[in-house]
Amino acid sequence: GENVEQHPSTLSVQEGDSAVIKCTYSDSASNYFPWYKQELGKGPQLIIDIRSNVGEKKDQRIAVTLNKTAKHFSLHITETQPEDSAVYFCAPNTGGFKTIFGAGTRLFVKA
Amino acid sequence: EPEVTQTPSHQVTQMGQEVILRCVPISNHLYFYWYRQILGQKVEFLVSFYNNEISEKSEIFDDQFSVERPDGSNFTLKIRSTKLEDSAMYFCASSPDRRNEKLFFGSGTQLSVL
User: Fold this and answer.
1) Are A88 and A10 a contacting pair, CB within 8 Å?
2) Residue A76 and residue B55: Cα distance in Å, rounded?
3) Which residues contact A79 (CB under 8 A, 6 or more apart)?
4) A88 and B CB contact within 8 Å
5) pLDDT band, very low/low/confident/very high, at B2 (cuts 50, 70, 90)
């Protein structure tokens, strides 16, 4: 089955700095690459996703980049703000009925 | 904006008791899921449901678990005889038209088994 790893597990940045979280997966059949944000006491929320035929996607301050050859994709957050503090999960998928989430990255943005 | 709603937000039960967790997915979505998250840990897949039947289930989803979509709106998870290790946050999710893409999660039900 799919093996998903996220790095780092914890990331602390100063407000205004950039943050990058990397997700490595094992199943070369993966074709959908989302990132979810989970705030305290809430369910995960999709913030950005990309398909395998696209190398990069940007939505305001967040972007996702995909390297299919190396089997990893990354979440980039620029100009971080305190409200970006949350746990971020990647969840690469092959189009099957089961999604494996990464272990999560806890992001702290210090004001 | 449409959302997935879950009730109750908290459920406390005694070991061995049955619990039913309820969810109302987004109305035009086709795929439904249950996940759970033990405090501070990863989000774990339990089961997916499509076209009124289970599509896939994890090894966690044993004979003590069942799901049902009794009418056009509700989606329930039943745990027949709860164990201490069932204590977790249970999330319901739905997705519109492609399986496992663009999941919308509810706010969860915190289940505590004593």
Assistant:
1) no
2) 33
3) A16, A18, A61
4) no
5) confident
Mean predicted confidence (pLDDT) in B56-79: 94
Q: How far is B101 from chain A (nearest CA, A)?
A: 7
Dist CA B95 CA B33 (whole Å): 9
Confidence at residue A31, expressed as pLDDT on a 0 to 100 scale: 92
Instruction: For A7-54, give the DSSP string.
Output: E-SEEEEETTS-EEEEEEE--TT--EEEEEEE-TTS--EEEEEEETT-
CA atoms within 13 A on the CB side of B94: 22
Residues 39-78 of B with CB under 8 A from A: 41-45, 48, 50, 55-56, 58
Give the length of chain A: 111
Distance of CA B47 to the CA centre of its chain: 8
Mean pLDDT of B56-63: 94
Binding-face residues of A in 58-87 toward B, CB within 8 A: none
CB B60 within 8 A of CB B44: yes
- Kindly identify which residue of chain A lies nearest to residue B6, measuring between CA atoms: A43
pLDDT at B68 over 80: yes
Nearest CA in chain A to B105: A43
What local confidence, expressed as pLDDT, does residue A98 receive? 84
Q: Given a cut of 90, is residue A53 above it in pLDDT?
A: no
In the prediction, which pLDDT does A6 show? 97
Distances in Å between the alpha carbon of A33 and those of A45, A50, B53, B78, B113? Answer: 14, 5, 26, 31, 35
